[in-house]
Amino acid sequence: MYRTLERLGERKSIVLDQFQRWISQQSLVDPTQFVDFSSSYFEGTKCPLGELGYSRDNQPGKLQIAFGISVGLNNIPTMLTIQKGNVQDKKHMQMLIRLCSSVLPEGSLLVFDCGGNTQDNKRRIRDLKFHYLTLKAKKKGPYRNEITIYHARKESQVSFVSGNRVYSCVKYRDGEEVRYIFFCDDLACDQLTKKARKLEKDLEKGKVLTKKVERGKDLGQYITPEGLDHRPWSSPEDHWRYPQPLCNRS
């Protein structure tokens, strides 16, 4: 099996080209394509494509490769790209877009998440006379604006049922883009419930830490701007004199 995989890998360009020609001749290329990216890690260190990067497998210390795939609404794959493990989705998306013109018919729709959502990628898609449907990145500023627009256009809201849930949607044009804002009461309640549970757990953890501080116990090691801090805190007032833990979110 491994020898067969090795031979296929050495001839992947030819195999993919022949496969794409065949599905085109058989009219199996669906005009609606779903694009996604993932990665797989190696136990070894010899793969020339292996690089350290964002690990979806929770193996940040191991080399990995990144791959992108496009599958039609008819569940037939059309495109595959393999890149080094440190290639980000937005750059990987550019490489996959280059393949679109040789495989997809004009007017096709590319559906992808916020990882590939950049102005440059969307411009490239439109230059090829394709369309796109993508997710907006979760940032407070843009989302706050969309929420304001959603509430301001209640008269144009449309409701529908999907997966036993009721959704409402507002559609509007912003420049050359058409935007859709969706809201679901059930999902909103689920999110609020999860946040409430997390807050309760944090409060319980905080109570335990407070008791340890009051008894002068060592709280263990914490990452601070000055490095690891593992000093025992003798009183709650001492806590505020020490640097707070440093947290970066990406």
List the helices and strands and how they pair.
Blueprint: H1 2-10, H2 12-25, E1 32-41, E2 64-72, E3 77-84, H3 89-103, E4 109-112, H4 119-127, E5 131-134, H5 140-152, E6 158-162, E7 165-174, E8 177-183, H6 185-214, E9 222-224, E10 227-229, H7 236-239
Parallel strand pairs: 1-4, 4-5
Antiparallel strand pairs: 1-2, 2-3, 6-7, 7-8, 9-10
Can you give a write-up of this model?
The chain is built from seven helices and ten strands. It is flat, with a radius of gyration of 25 Å. It starts with a helix and ends in an 11-residue tail after the last helix. Mean pLDDT is 84; it is low at 232-250. The protein has two domains: 2-135, Nucleotidyltransferase, domain 5, CATH 3.30.420; 188-239. Strand 2 (64-72) and strand 3 form a beta hairpin. It has helices spanning 2-10, 12-25, 89-103, 119-127, 140-152, 185-214, 236-239, and strands at residues 32-41, 64-72, 77-84, 109-112, 131-134, 158-162, 165-174, 177-183, 222-224, 227-229. It has 250 residues and is α+β, with helices and mostly antiparallel strands. The strands form three sheets. Strands 3-2-1-4-5 form a five-stranded mixed β-sheet.
